[in-house]
Amino acid sequence: MVTRKSAVKAPPTKLFVLDTNVLMHDPTSLYRFEEHDVFVPIMTLEELDNNKKGLSEVARNARQASRMLDEIVTSSEDRIDEGIPLLGPSRELASGRLFLQTQAIDPTLPAGVPTAKADNQILAVIMYLRDAFKDRHVILVSKDINMRIKARALGLEAQDYFNDKVLEDTDLLYTGMRELPDDFWETHGRDMQSWKEGGRTYYKVRGPLCAEMYLNELVYQEGDKPLYAIVKQKDGPVAVFESLIDYAHQKNNVWGIMARNREQNFALNLLMNPDIDFVSLLGQAGTGKTLLTLAAGLTQVLETKRYAEIIMTRVTVPVGEDIGFLPGTEEEKMAPWMGALEDNLDVLNGSPEDGGGYGGEWGRAATRDLIRTRIKVKSLNFMRGRTFINKFLIIDEAQNLTSKQMKTLITRAGPGTKVVCLGNIAQIDTPYLTEGSSGVTYVVDRFKGWEHSGHITLQRGERSRLADYAAETL
């Protein structure tokens, strides 16, 4: 006997229950669940209320989340317990509904799980919803790993908030360079044009690989006739390569510094190029990010006079937001955080043994004082509203910035300013930031292919054999 198949029913939409840290991390998360519904427990609102005071990023986000919830609730005439459509308030980003907890829910948690704790009360709400809506997936969304582990231990579905992640896997992050295959010239050399202009060699090539390249991507080929070039123009399958300056040679040294490897050579070409306004350098400890950047900055400030001064800033994560408890001016308060700057200036200032320090100790002291007058150290806390004109702006430890903070900083750049971001995404200290959601990952991904930006991931450590061995084995 053949039975007729019943009509296939569309699966019901999911119900996502938001933990407080998701709203405090991204206030717009209410609009990030597309056609699915969002449920906000009373305890989440209580925790938002507890965290709204202060000037920190978390407090700002808590207030913003509260304002968004207020805007959604007041803009709708629908009853809260029936769900408020998000289509209008989200400007058609989300088509689901927002539910707020409108009734008391008795916590039915297993014995031994304390009911007074806010996290556990949210878990109790999820257990209630799971039993009330048996045909729907009820899923906790939380940035708190322990909260997700507890939820799964109680048999509940839980997941991280992924919407802020630029990339799922940081191995896919743009490295800024590409090795050309051995047969590149055979497959792409037909009708190739080559010419010299201003001391540089240009190659116009055509082929399928050119379509995958980005503007200002560094391309190289090792072998008998090595090629190191930058993609200067790109139009579909046609690309124009420009040969690079060899900064590994003594005659092209930058403030006495020479490139020790291929990536450092690429980095110096980007840092010294006046057409590139934004440079990002990623790399493990000891790859030379700060040293190369300071050398390029000092050369262009003191020798070529391209920029007026160097401004250096970094996020002060370990002591939180406030630097007011340290004595002195803004510059003096930032001094403990700028050990890397001092260490690199010692190298750049040279010593009598390595041929630096013209005029002995007096000469070195005078040079150090001159350099210090052209380097300003600024705190991130006072950046909003500023405009930097004709400056060389260095953002150190950029992996600890959120994408919003990164936007605030980069938009400070006025005419003639170059911005350099330095970071190591393996050393993130900011809570709730991961390699995939760090501000530096965000800018590397968004700026790739822009004609006035460049990026390089430095590979080899050049600090010392001890540092290299420690980075590999520890």
What can you see in these coordinates?
This protein has 15 helices and 18 strands. The longest helix has 19 residues, at 57-75. It is an alpha/beta fold. The chain folds into three domains: 15-159, 5'-nuclease (Rossmann fold); 171-243, Beta Barrel (Elongation Factor Tu (Ef-tu), domain 3); 256-473, P-loop containing nucleotide triphosphate hydrolases (Rossmann fold), CATH 3.40.50.300. A six-stranded mixed beta sheet has the order 3-4-2-1-5-6. Strands 7-10-11-12-9-8 form a six-stranded mixed beta sheet. Strands 15-14-16-17-13-18 form a six-stranded parallel beta sheet, sandwiched between helices. The protein has helices at residues 20-25, 42-50, 57-75, 118-132, 145-153, 184-188, 208-212, 262-271, 289-303, 330-334, 339-349, 360-373, 403-410, 439-447, 465-473; strands at residues 15-18, 37-40, 84-85, 97-100, 138-141, 157-159, 177-179, 193-197, 200-206, 218-221, 227-235, 238-243, 278-283, 309-314, 375-379, 391-396, 418-423, 453-458. Helix 2 packs antiparallel against helix 4, helix 8 (262-271) runs parallel beside helix 9 and helix 9 packs across helix 11 (339-349).
Primary descriptors:
6-stranded mixed sheet, Rossmann fold, 18 strands, alpha/beta, 15 helices, Elongation Factor Tu (Ef-tu), domain 3, globular, 474 residues, disordered N terminus, single chain
A few lines on this structure:
It contains 15 helices and 18 strands. It is of the alpha/beta class and 474 residues long. The chain has three domains: 15-159, 3-Layer(aba) Sandwich (Rossmann fold), CATH 3.40.50.1010; 171-243, Elongation Factor Tu (Ef-tu), domain 3 (Beta Barrel); 256-473, Rossmann fold (3-Layer(aba) Sandwich).
